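As a representative case, we now present a protein record of this kind.
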Amino acid sequence: MRRKSGFTMIEIMIALAIIGILAMAAGTNWQMWTNKSNASFYFRDVFMQASLGKTMAMASRRQHSLRIVFAAGTVTIMQGNASSGSNTWSNVRDSVIPPRGSICRIDSVIKTLNGVDQAAVTTGTEDIVFNPSGDGFPFDQIRIRMTGPNGARSQVRIYGWTAKARLENVWS
């Protein structure tokens, strides 16, 4: 008998099943990586806004505010109309918004005064004001706590004396 070359239908079906399983696993890993990456970018953008607030106040000699809107998860730098006691505020930069379709959110803002944590703010709008002279920032520190996909947690810590910001990956 002559031997025929080629693949049988069963061999092709097994190969396609293996390729399908591998593609499904790769797609799931890709989605998890994308979610984690988007959360990381969001956390860094919030950190950058916090860092820029004080710098912009010093450079322009006007009050600046970091406005946090909990429901939308947005963080915006606002510029005041005076060096202290501003009554008119305008956006300086585009707001940082959570990635579309992600579960990133800002959980709370906790201010520490004289070593004692004040009540955590978790709803509404919270403004953190930076004066150009450094006065008017009476807190020891302010922590902006955020959660991302799979329970990833980060916080931006703003120190009172210098108003410098630091991004930390985990909080409890």
Observations:
- The helical segments are 9-60.
- The longest strand covers residues 105-113.
